[in-house]
Design a protein that fits this description.
74 residues; mainly alpha; globular
């Protein structure tokens, strides 16, 4: 799950998948904008055939938190 998420992240911001770490913060470290983050969530919904709760997604700060959340949905 982490590797796939790192690959998807690299589609939205200028960072190599190998540079994405579990503790990487979306906004501060990876330079995501709110729009980037919401767009990525839409792609994750399609990719993993899941439904992301917007209120839960708003609490996600790090890549590991995203992985943990996605694993609860699959």
């Amino acid at each position: 799950m982490f590797e796939k998420l790192a690959q998807i992240i690299s589609n939205y911001v200028e960072v190599e998948p190998s540079e994405v770490k579990p503790e990487s913060r979306f906004m501060e470290d990876l330079k995501f904008t709110s729009f980037d983050f919401m767009s990525m969530l839409g792609e994750l919904e399609d990719e993993f055939d899941i439904e992301v709760d917007q209120q839960e997604a708003a609490k996600i700060r790090t890549v590991q938190e995203a992985v943990d959340y996605l694993e609860t949905l699959s």
